[in-house]
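# step 3/5: fold
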Amino acid sequence: MSAARNDDDMADGLSNQGERDDDQECQDQEPDVRFSYANERTFLAWIRTSLGLVTAGLAITQLLPPFDFPGGRRLIGLPLIALGVVVALFSFRNWQENERAMRAGRGLPKSMLPRVAAVVVSIVAVIGLVLVVFGGSSK
């Protein structure tokens, strides 16, 4: 009985090994629920960031006193609104890619979102600094 079992195991292991590897890569494995929840929390954090950027951009363009430089408020606010839209769209894409990678048993893909957000916010901050220091306020 054990010899027959070993023969069956060897036959399955040798003849179908390539097929098994392909099947395993194609099949979705249910990831640990903690990782899925962490991925979802990260997505929701990016959505909150997106909402904050859009809100800040709208507040700057509509509520901030005008600068002596024409269009100064828009120069600060519009990039923040645009970044908020980009963050919302790419955060969903990142969530999907992370879910796929976890289900396929692969490492998580790298995201450009933190770098893009940091660069845009830094540029907007420098523009704001220049407008405040050199442009003054019209009031």
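# step 4/5: annotate
Residues 67 and 132 are 8 Å apart (CA to CA).
# step 5/5: archive (pending)
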